[in-house]
Design a protein that fits this description.
single chain, alpha+beta, nine-stranded antiparallel beta sheet
Length: about 130
């Protein structure tokens, strides 16, 4: 009987594991975009994974959030919700959101996060590890 309870409890706990990138990237880390498709990104943009299946961050002008539903290493955002402030970096912000919505694969290694697409686009982020 104890063995059955142990197996049931273990299965329940395993079902709670976040299989999205949120479960693999440090929840306290803020990842800063440093490179987009091989070029240095010209503005400040960040991404975080604050809780299971959630993505949040700050694009060059606006804060944003979205859902992340695909299991790691796959990456897929839901619709991106953002504030609507204007600034001089709106062109960079558009490029950031466009690229983020096209990413399909994620890789976390130490303080580097790489998001990429099958079409060859790539976003490279770094973080200061806590």
């Amino acid at each position: 009987m104890r063995l059955l309870l142990f197996i049931a409890a273990t299965a329940t706990l395993m079902g709670c594991k976040d299989e999205t990138i949120s479960g693999y990237a440090d929840a306290d880390a803020e990842w800063r975009l440093v490179e987009l498709d091989g070029d240095t990104f010209p503005a400040r943009a960040t991404i975080t994974f604050p809780e299971k299946g959630r993505i949040a961050g700050k694009a060059p002008c606006n804060s944003f959030s979205t859902a992340q539903k695909a299991p790691y290493p796959w990456f897929e955002t839901g619709p991106i919700a953002s504030t609507k402030m204007a600034c001089s970096d709106l062109e960079a912000e558009s490029a950031f959101f466009e690229a983020l919505s096209q990413m399909q694969i994620s890789e976390v290694s130490g303080n580097t996060l790489i998001l990429s697409s099958e079409a060859g686009s790539e976003m490279v982020f770094t973080s200061a590890l806590p």
